Amino acid sequence: MGRTYFVEEVIGQYLSDLSTKAKPYVTGLLIGQCSPQRDYVIWAVRTPPKEEKENDIGPSTLASIDEEWITTHASQVSRMLPGGLLVLGVFIVTTPELSKDSQNALRKLIFSVEKSLAKRRLWKPAEEEVSDRAALHICSSTKKVVCRTYDVQDPKSSAKPADWKYQSTLSASWLALDCTVNVNIHIPLLATSPNHDLEKNTKNGLNRWSKQIEDSVFLINGQVKDDDTELLEGQKKLRGNTQPSTQFSDVKVLTQLSQGSSRRSTATVQVCTGSINLRGAVKCRAYLHNNKPKVKEAVQALKRDIINTLSDRCEILFEDLIINEGPHKKNFEREYHVLPQRLFVPVAGSSVMLSDYKFGDEATGEIQERFVEMLDQSVQAEDIHIAEEMNTVDICPVTDNTDDAQLKQLQKATLLVKLQQNMGVVIAAAVAVFASIFSFNYFSD
């Protein structure tokens, strides 16, 4: 039996209104939430038009679909989704003449989009997680809708039929979980890392930090709840709402300070050229359908939002640095940068808000333009809510006051310590000697 997609009713009108007059086809993304029983589609977003060169204008076929442009759009959109929401699939509206080729094109797009999104994730999908993604085709003439799914975990996956059911006020009363996470992450820049690769080092550091978030304890409204408990157990559920209304849960995140006796801990000495420090407090939010959601679904959605929001900000910052300073910056000096702030924007007819990020000097008009371009949504300036204070990135180089002989001596000593790292007394003595001679930073795993 195939999956069932419950779809916000206004999406049907949105898809019908997409015109194929300028081009024989229009592509786009389906956004929503998966659950073990059913899937929910709450937004559809067309692919932004790309400026065409005069020489490129001519008869279009599905073979001319720009995969890279669509996957880039998917990556940008995924940054603007709070926890619990994801790109559920792709759609294409075509003229009748192109209908027979639509499924092949959709299949190719689904796997390309998923591959692009998976590269950016610092978390791994759970084994029991839904991995089917929707491929929706609409004929511009007959308005006929055909929905199929592909398993993105199986490259050889074949199409399976799926039900596409419209429902009014589908996301009018979803549940929301809110938390603020204090961040103080220290990331060493190893001497072996070529050209001070800040972005790569940062991602490695965030990867380690993400594992701490995965192992954290989550208090929902002050309580630790069993994974299989219903999220709303003991609470009154909002019923019969036709107006957008959100039921919020306050969440506290308790990060474990020790790894426990079951894990082996060893000390290592690393030659570093500096460090990156991420400090601040980030606002995190996840949304969940109101059809008896489980605690484990809620916690998983919020964990991913915590990890994604910091990772996305760092990506945005490095993209901004490349644009303003160039990709090959040679000077490595101490720098302070401000991470972009998170903001939330309500959407008409839904209790689920969209998210985005802004730098301090970014005008409101630029944010509004981005929502129109990326999500095809008009946003009022007064509806843009900045959720937090500024968070900083401190890039600290170590003063280069050692000559080559000293560096070689340190590297030899480091190798010796690594060979003897199971002997705690030797490590302690070695570190003490190093600390008295050289001004390097040492870190413990």
From TrEMBL:
Superkingdom of the source species: Eukaryota
One Gene Ontology CC term in the entry: endomembrane system
BP terms from Gene Ontology: intracellular protein localization
Identification of the protein by name: Protein odr-4 homolog
Membership in a protein family: Belongs to the ODR-4 family.
Membrane-spanning ranges: 423-443
UniProt lineage: Eukaryota, Metazoa, Chordata, Craniata, Vertebrata
Keyword hit for Chaperone: no
Record organism: Baryphthengus martii (Rufous motmot)
InterPro entries: ODR-4-like
Stretches assigned to coiled coil: none
Keywords linked to the UniProt accession: Membrane, Transmembrane, Transmembrane helix
Role, per record: May play a role in the trafficking of a subset of G-protein coupled receptors.
Cell compartments where the protein resides: Membrane
